[in-house]
Specification:
4-stranded antiparallel β-sheet, about 30% strand
Length: about 180
């Protein structure tokens, strides 16, 4: 019986590695629909402006907001830098964009984004740090989810700097979603 369990475990692990290698990822967070996503292509251009509107996958840098988020359970375990899972976020702001964060939500170039009202406290009543808006500089991205108001995103950790995320940047698309 023990041989069967080990064999089955190795089989599942092997299949998982194959799917990982083919670019498939499982999203279990509330930021976007739960299900299977796939890396459709990679962004190789150093000009990040063409990323606007794309959903990207990135490993958070080991900065205080992300380390606190990991401690609070917003970010799960992952392999690589900081042992944090990769995040799935939509690029809503790029170099030159004006981002404003108010009690009404996040605006980019004067357009209020859906599901963007920042929460002062998380679901467990813990104080949230809210980012200030800014004019985005070269190599800076503002990432969010328009799917869920409860996403841990740039409202709380600010801009993502190009030099803190892996290059090339993986662009992802939905494959299978939970109903």
């Amino acid at each position: 019986m023990l041989r069967f369990v080990w064999g089955f475990t190795l089989f599942v692990f092997g299949i998982s590695l194959v799917f990982w290698g083919l670019g498939y990822r499982v999203n279990v967070s509330d930021s976007f629909p739960k299900g299977i996503w796939r890396i459709s292509h990679y962004h190789w251009d150093l000009d990040l402006t063409s990323l606007k509107g794309e959903i990207i996958l990135f490993r958070p840098p080991c900065t205080p907001p992300f380390l606190e988020a990991k401690k609070r359970g917003y970010i799960g375990f992952g392999f690589g830098r900081g042992f944090m899972q990769q995040l799935l976020k939509k690029v809503v702001g790029v170099s030159g964009d004006v981002v404003s964060v108010t009690h009404l939500g996040v605006s980019v170039n004067g357009r209020l984004l859906e599901n963007s009202v920042p929460f002062t406290y998380d679901r467990l009543g813990r104080k949230m740090s809210i980012s200030k808006g800014k004019i985005l500089g070269d190599g800076e991205l503002w990432v969010m989810s328009d799917y869920s108001a409860y996403s841990f995103d740039s409202r709380y950790f600010g801009v993502i700097n190009f030099d803190s995320i892996p290059f090339p940047i993986p662009i992802v698309e939905k494959v299978f979603m939970e109903n």
